[in-house]
Amino acid sequence: MRFTTLIKHPADWMAGGTDDQCAVLTSRIRLARNLRNHPFPGWAKREQRAAALDLMRPAVEALPAMKDAFSQELGDLSSVQKQVLVERHLISREHAARGDGSGAVIERRQTFSLMLNEEDHLRMQAIRPGLQLSAAFEALSALDTELEESLEFAFDPTLGYLTTCPTNLGTGLRASAMLHLPGLVLSDQIGQVLQAVNKIGLAVRGLYGEGTESLGNLYQISNQSTLGESEETIIRRLERVISQVSQHERNAREKLLEDDPEMVADKIGRAYGVLRHAHIIDSKEALNHLSLLRLGANLGFFSDDTVMLCDSLLMDIQPAHLQLHSGRKLSPEERDSIRAEIVRSRLQSLGSPDNRVITEEGEKTPDTSNPGNA
């Protein structure tokens, strides 16, 4: 599969639009594995990395689930192409910085992505829409089992799977969910909730993982420990916490609409106005306004399909996607102009917010049979 074919259509997990995805956009499971009797990538010489790649890549491509997959050495991709894969959460920023001796094999629907010679020999991930950590794990575990028939992984009976970073030792599992939490942010509850999540041993990160900031009110919540617990135990605990955070978000949205409906309507209306009419907009501002537009769709100010529109725009207005769309390297000023043009074009048919969601008394309209525009 060619790169252009891979990115031509949105990934299955980017479809969005269900009630379950009101707060939880995606679930991701990642497994770290290393080859037995091979130096780990960070300590391997160039020829050793190449040998490991030559061993792993055919084995991954032969998996039934990876039929017609995109498979490429990173050294053969341009910097923009690699950054597009980062923006789609298909490879890590660290992997994109690597070149010779590293590769990626990505399933055609982008539900599976395998990084070869990243920090570990194999970083395998499965992504699903909404809160589906268990389903994602089952799918990736089956893939992992199939790979073990052709590849021998570094495993210790006491410690479990051996990994480059001690935090991944044991199961090698990193489970995470991407959450959209504008209600908690607007009600100033986000700090309290995230602090509680940290206290029980879970990590909270920004849009692109460790070391990145939260943009568009998007947060990643993941496990930190992988040693001494089964994969099922880790996932059950994470699903329970994410469900609780999601419920807090729903409650915050309802209370905002009850207590201060004019403020909610004002923020959603301003976001709509800027996005529909701006001719220059940077990435951060666009993401924050799209977050409010998505919130408006969830609350009934816009039709349900607006959620899917926002989710696709969240990806398509990223810097590398813009450059790929334009077919050339863009200056920051050019990106801001093209970004605004794309947003205006996509939102051209979107009508103004339906403020009948709120009554003159500031209460939420009880009839939710048709939450979209009348």
Low-confidence stretches: 363-374
CATH class of the largest domain: Alpha Beta
Structural category? alpha+beta
Which topology of the largest domain does CATH recognise?
Answer: Creatine Kinase, Chain A, domain 2
Structure report:
This protein is α+β, with helices and mostly antiparallel strands and 374 residues long. The protein has two domains: 3-253, Glutamine synthetase/guanido kinase, catalytic domain (Creatine Kinase, Chain A, domain 2, 2-Layer Sandwich); 260-357, no CATH class. Helix content is 44%, strand content 14%. It contains 13 helices and ten strands. The chain has helices spanning 3-8, 46-61, 79-87, 93-96, 133-147, 182-186, 190-199, 231-259, 261-277, 283-299, 305-316, 319-326, 332-346; strands at residues 24-33, 70-73, 103-106, 112-116, 122-129, 155-156, 160-161, 173-180, 202-205, 218-223. It has an eight-stranded antiparallel β-sheet with strand order 2-3-4-5-1-8-10-9, with helices on one face. Strands 6-7 form a two-stranded antiparallel sheet. A hairpin with a 5-residue loop joins strand 3 (103-106) and strand 4 (112-116). Helix 3 (79-87) packs across helix 12 (319-326). The protein starts with a helix and ends in a 28-residue tail after the last helix. The model is unreliable at 363-374 (pLDDT under 50).
